[in-house]
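During data preparation, a discrete fold description was generated, as reproduced here:
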Amino acid sequence: MSAKKRESDSKQDPISFLVSIQIRSRNEPQGKIMIVVSIANQKGGEGKTTTSLNLSMGLARRGKKTLLVDIDPQANSTGIFTNPEALEKSMHGVFNSRMTIKEILMETKLPNLFLAPSKTNLAEVETLSGSSVDAPYILRDAFQGLEGFDFCIIDCPPSLSIFTINALVGSNYVIIPLQAEKFSVDGIVGLQQTITSIKKRINPGLEILGALITQLKPQTLLTKTIVPVLTKYFRIFETSISDGVAVGESHLAKKSVYDYNKSSKQAQEYEGFIEEFLNELKK
């Protein structure tokens, strides 16, 4: 494939790009099997980072060796644990230089929780990464050499970029956080199309585990109208996360909402969500 052709492909929309690239078989073993879950929604402000953080921290607190992968150039998940811009190694190295996750991962202060950090320069490699035939497989290939992990949680950017495509190609499951609002519902159509295309062409094992309603305002007419509509698209987790200040305050404190204020309603709801998540995997 010529450089000119690769550049042209990288500017296509995600679904057209998936159709146009050469698909290669990726069924070879990747070491110990870990459950990989993408937290994805192309709309911002839906609770992706909050859900990624609280799910990964909650799993680690339950004794599960967990890897949190931050592929959002905003690096908000990374910022909870360290200063992203001070890092020498990050996901930029994975997408730009084909480093492995093992080469960049760092321990956190929370036992059982490890981080593959991001920084803002990740945005610089988006077009370059997308121009390669191997582009959708960069993250999956980077998992090679990891040992002993039970879960990998991927915090995706608010877009259907090559980073999100990589996450979906390398995942077993997708969880979609979203608010019970009209614009949130409208935005899931593109994500659904991308997931369907990836499932058909590259990753037949990919499944939407469910949608998690965040920032819920249960008494509003809009909420009562929208939630039934969502069930037509995919499973909705029985647990939802209420609107409240505890989540935002926990970010400022650089803690999970449970560690910040375990008696808060949002902390109890995220704990319920994690239990529901684990039970769903047993089915």
Remarks:
- The longest strand covers residues 207-213.
- The domain at 3-20+31-231 is CATH 3.40.50.300 (Rossmann fold).
